Request: fold
Amino acid sequence: MSSIRNLRTRFLTVAATGTLAALSLTACDDGSGVRAETPSAHTSALTSSSTPASSGDSSSRDDAKSGASGSAQGTQGSSGTRGSSGTSGASGTNVSAAGTSASGGGRSGAVSGTVTCEGSRTRTVAALLTRPVNHMLLTVTNTGGSTCFLYGYPSVRFGSAQSVPPVIEDSKPQAVVTLKPGESGYASVNLSAADGSGAHGNTEKSLTVYFQGRSGTGSTGTGAHPALPAKGVYVDDSVKVTYWQQSMDDAINW
Reply:
């Protein structure tokens, strides 16, 4: 009996051991064992850790691309602004160029608008001089609104004289006398010989001054009638005139 119990005990022990072994093998085969769980957990951890990193990198790259795109757009916008400014500047320059051109046209107009100085647009004054003796100064002032030219020399006529005195050729200036509005030009008249050598002298109480045109022949426009001293002026046949001068000093130098 004792032997039978011992054999049963051994059989149960062996059977229990086999059952445990079978259970252990089954756990390994269906992936639910320790070894199956460990790789799965590791893989999950790697996947979990790599996914955010990948997402972060992708997000960073997208942000970088977005930033670069925004920067490029900003640069284009800035460039566009500069271009617009440049165009505006150029336009300003054009406007500015157009403004300069208009101003030049005005000057050109002023030049083309110049006229010959004559009685209707000037005021003429005749004044006797003490030095040099027997000289009279003619002062012509432009009273018009445009620049005028004093061409040649004054054609003066005292009283009822039928001719005008000759000009002193050496007094011819290098340029035509130009009078802007309000400016004056000058000429002197040698009334008589200082040494008394002149002939056919007489006292005259009226004077007419005629103005020459650009051609230098004849007279143009209206003559001037400057007043003479009440007692008149003595004139002989040596009377002569100077060319119109830009300054008084040049006029009385002859």
In short: The first strand starts at residue 115 and ends at 116.
